[in-house]
Amino acid sequence: MTGSEYALIAGVIFLAACLQASSGFGMGMLAAPVIAMVDPALLPATLIILAFLVTVMVTVRERQSLDLRGTGWALVGRVPGSFLGAWLVSVLSREGLAWVVVAVVLTGLMLAVHGWAPRPVRATLIAAGAASGIMGTATSIGGPPMALVWQGHDGPRLRGTMSAFFMVGSSISMGMLWVTGAVTAEMLALALWMVPAAVAGYVASRYVNRFLNAARLKAVALGASALGSVLLIVQLVLAAI
């Protein structure tokens, strides 16, 4: 990669980490389309590693507000979902994975815009956990299903609960990807280089939280995700011509 590509990824990781730490989700939705434009082969492991780092920090910060029961049921679904997601990574081409990223992001956007809000009962938590496992392991975008189920939580409870879920879920996903040979040295190296950007985004979130309410954060997440998806679609279409 060129220096400008490293700078682009660092910038989007900073913004994505800030968004994740402020709202409890959105890192993959914001960063994955941009990284896929640079090189789809860097997904999903690079983002999963960085998301794990951010979720650990947020879980510690919001530990007093966790919904441990809900997290436990969601993780029941996450494990089998991660198996299927790892299989998808092993069989899809780079372009195929990029289209999956687009489909996942746009589906999440449509559901969020239409305000669908399933009740966070045992069955929906397990189903959402399974969907998150598939999407998160295959594309690093596992937030939309859990955000739909837990959107009724207040700020600290939403951030803490989702972060705890993704902290464990990211570990499971990385394990599945490692077993299937989908984690490369290039992914690990890029993740290491991007750690300062992710930590800076987390630190910035502490200040951003003072100025952005839930509605504004949601608007930023949806807008950035939509823009990234449109740019990725344009790139894929141009490459196919």
What does this structure look like?
By secondary structure, the chain is mainly α. It has one domain. It has helices spanning 3-23, 27-38, 45-61, 68-91, 94-114, 122-139, 143-150, 155-179, 185-208, 214-240. Helix 1 packs antiparallel against helix 2, helix 2 (27-38) runs parallel beside helix 10 (214-240) and helix 5 runs antiparallel to helix 10 (214-240). It is globular and about 45 Å long.
Radius of gyration: 16 Å
Count of DSSP-assigned helices = 10
State the shape: globular
Percent helix among the residues?
A: over 70%
> What is the string of helix and strand elements?
HHHHHHHHHH
Overall pLDDT confidence: 87
Count of beta strands: 0
Unreliable segments (pLDDT under 50, ≥5 consecutive)? Answer: none
Distance between the termini: 24 Å
Helix/strand-derived category reads mainly alpha
* Tally of structural domains: 1
